[in-house]
Every structure is written in structure tokens, then in C-alpha cells.
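Subject: sequence -> C-alpha cells, single chain

Hey, anyone have a minute? Need the predicted structure for the following. Not urgent.
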Amino acid sequence: MNKIPLTVQILTRNSSRGLEKLLPRLERFGEILIVDGNSTDGTLNLAVDYNCRIIKQEDTKEKNVTIKDFSKVRNRGIRAARYDWQLVIDSDEYIDDKLVNEVEQIVSDNIINIVYNIPRKFVDNKGVIDICMGYPNRQIRLFNRLSGTHYTKPVHEKLVFDKNKVNIKNIKNFIYVPLDDYHIMRSKGDKYLKMAISNASQINFYRWLRWYVYFHTRASVSYLFRLFFSFFKKGHHMPLRYELYIFYYNWRMISLSFKKMLDGFINKKR
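Reply:
Had a minute. Here:
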């Protein structure tokens, strides 16, 4: 079987549970690149079993390394890949043959100045969740590195490119995301929150209003309208407390970043 000339990039750290479901679905791709944080569970054994190539997130012997800058690690994977076409998948996600076939056609067409948004759907023990205020939850996950595409921002990393030269298209099929236990999801959210406000002490009041207040308030208002109208739709709904956590997260982002910004201002005056 001819492999699809594409590198699948996966960040891992003790991710064996998710990889057991994901890796068998990637066998049609030319390279599976595991960018690992020195895992101590069965992650690396699984990677070897599925003929993945493994590189380190950081040049260190420390075990179970926590990522401090997601963009730096993602860009390391982009540079190390054997193929110019890249598909980015998280270790707790999975895909199906419909998406693989769609990606295969795109790679075959080989139009390098297009990046592709892939929609994601959550899955719980009752099946695929049809209705969620965050849908279509598209993220740019498929691109050709010759387009100059790369990541920026240490947390909630963002793919950047020259919008005058590179276009965005939406893919039809989905990446599937198994829903974490609520308390695990909260724990992950708190970790990302701390990372997201880590530089708030270095900004001024105007930038705080723009980067934290405006963005997260606008997002919350948009989510509120979506949540209201989602109640009238039939289908499998995202559990309500997961939906409400988004509002809590945004409020905490604004309040904690304000405190961080204020502390930084006071320290500069001393």
C-alpha cells in the first residue's frame, strides 16, 4: 500500500491511553512523528510498535517534562518532519477513514498555499455529541510547511501565516475528542489558565483591556447566545456543566490577569 506523503505530528507525555485508539487509525500516513516529553508509561513502547519516529520535546533527561511553550515544541516537530504536508493531532483525539480519505485527496492535489480548518466533535460514553455551543470548533490542523506556516504563543498556540499569500479552507470530516471526566477537564483548564496569564505582569492597562477583557468578554457573549439557542435543538447535547465552565474560565482569565497586571505595575513603581 502506498503511504500518504504526510507527517502526522503528535505531542505526548504519558499518553499511552489515547494512543492505543489513535495510532491504528494513522497507518496510511507516511510518517507518524511522536514529539515526546520523556514519558514513563507505555507511550514510547506503543510508538515503537506502530513504527513511529520519536523526537524529544526538550533536550533534557528529566522525566515527564511539562511543556512551557507549546509553540516552540510544535515548531520543533514541523522542522523535524520528513514530509512538507503536516497533520497535527493531539494524543487524546482520533480520526476515521472519512477524514483520512479527504486528507489524502488534498495532499494529492498538493496546493501548498492553502491551510485547512478541521472541525472537531466531542465524544462521551453515549456517543458523538451533536450539539455544543463551541461547534463547529474548527482548528487549522492540516498545512504545508513550505507555505511558511508556523506556531506562535506559548499556550493556546496559534498557527500564523501570510494571509495575503495563503488561503484557508474548511474540511468536511471531523477529528473526534473523547470527553474527559469533568474534574480532569477542570484541572487541565486551570493549568492552561496559569500559563495564559504568566506574562500579564509585563503589560500595561490598555493591552490588558485588549488582550484579556475584550477577547474573553466577546467570546462569552457569543457563547451565551449559542448556548441559549442550543437548548431548542434536538440531539445529543454537551453536558451543561461543561458548557458553563467556559464562562467561568473566561471570567477567571480576566480577573486573574488583572491582578497579575496590577502586581507588575506596583512592582515597577517600587
